[in-house]
Amino acid sequence: MKHLKISSKLLVVLAVSLSLFLSACTASEKENKRDQIRIAEVTRSIFYAPQYVAIEKGYFKQAGIDIDLKTTWGGDKTMTALLSNGADIALVGSETSIYVNSQGTNDPILNFAQLTETDGTFLVSRKSLKNFSWSQLKGKTFLGQRKGGMPQMAGEYSLKKHGIDPHKDVTLLQNIDFANIANAFASGTGDFVQLFEPQASMFEQKGIGHVVASFGKESGKLPYTSYMAKESFLKSHGDVLQRYTKALYKAQQFVESHSAEETAKLIAPYFEDTSVTLIEKVVQRYKEQHSYAKTPLLQEEAWNNLQRIMKSAKELDHPAPYKQYVNTTFAQNAIK
């Protein structure tokens, strides 16, 4: 009987110990629980450097967020992923939210954080032009971007700014897929081409072409690439998105305050086929023309410039009011 009593006491002690252990595990699990955010990025680009910095520096993890990043290669596919709940957030041109919402929806797409604030393309000439002037495009063949996309609209806006009608004064080619534009130019098609980095700098290195102008500088400040989500997601995941935007802001400040070399080394794993030296050159070029947004706050003036450019390209049928398309709450709180 004495042995039985000792065993009973031991069982009680073990039960209490087990209870405390399970409680500690539960508390630890709650403390270490992370929220997952699925991001669909429209392309993989050095243009999006702050995003990769936020991941590599652990800013999202510090905010209790795990990032599931997928490259969806194209605005249509990116928005399809968002609308079909295949992604929580889309990183894509702000104009896509206007296209989608204009079709009518009970759950509108809202822009809540800005990543880039200028166009990211450059005008590349086949010939070296020491004293370039925009008038030199007249009568030439120009490989543009997809109709209705922000690169093409910014490109057309820039040409018009310099007195060139893109549909009359140049032979405008828009029948080549985005992925094949650079190859088409390299194989001899066109006198001028509109390219993103690092392709523009690569062509310079190889002697295929020469960067003669920046469409980012010409078209001015605009919400070129932003993070957007369904209104319902913003309401149901407000706390997560606030932490997300704060982490993004930290990365934007890092890119702004650190050298192009430091940023290039951080984001190099995302561009395995590109040398760190070239990445650094591209980052520096984007920094110099202020393409990387310093904060996630999408300004109304920039939004209105976006509408002007879309209207000039005849891609905006009705006004897209800033307050109906942009939620500034998370950005404003992040930068306080």
TrEMBL record:
Pfam families associated with the record: NMT1
Domain (SsuA/THI5-like) ranges: 49-258
Broad class of where this protein is predominantly found: periplasm
Subcellular location: Periplasm
Highest rank taxon of the organism: Bacteria
Signal peptide bounds: 1-24
PANTHER family hit by this protein: ALIPHATIC SULFONATES-BINDING PROTEIN-RELATED, TAURINE-BINDING PERIPLASMIC PROTEIN
Protein name: Nitrate/sulfonate/taurine/bicarbonate ABC transporter periplasmic protein
Lineage summary: Bacteria, Bacillati, Bacillota, Bacilli, Bacillales
